[in-house]
Amino acid sequence: MIKQNKAVELRLYPNKEQQVLLAKTFGCCRKVYNLALAESIESYKQNGKFEHSNYITYREQFPFLGEVEAQALNQSLQNLKSAFKNRFSKTAKR
User: Fold this and answer.
1) Domain for residue 46, yes or no?
2) How many domains does the structure of the chain reveal?
3) How far is residue 86's CA from residue 20's CA, in Å, rounded to a whole number?
4) Are the C-beta atoms of 65 and 28 separated by less than 8 Å?
5) What value, to the nearest 5°, has the Cα angle with vertex 85 and ends 65 and 46?
6) Domain hosting residue 20, numbered range
7) pTM above 0.85, yes or no
């Protein structure tokens, strides 16, 4: 017997408070990603290595990053690390 996958389509309607929190989260994730990217590029120019820091160093500079979940900020840094890994790995298809 072949097992078939089923999908459920779902649409969420957040209230105003949830919309504000989602907008803050997306904006802060974008800010952390861009800061880490700029820092990595600058690090590469100086010493030839891409170095990433954690979001806590950015939270000291930008206190509004404390208003959103830390997991979301960490995930944006993980996404950056995986993008670098995929782009600069020896086995990456060109």
Assistant:
1) yes
2) 1
3) 33
4) yes
5) 75
6) 16-85
7) no
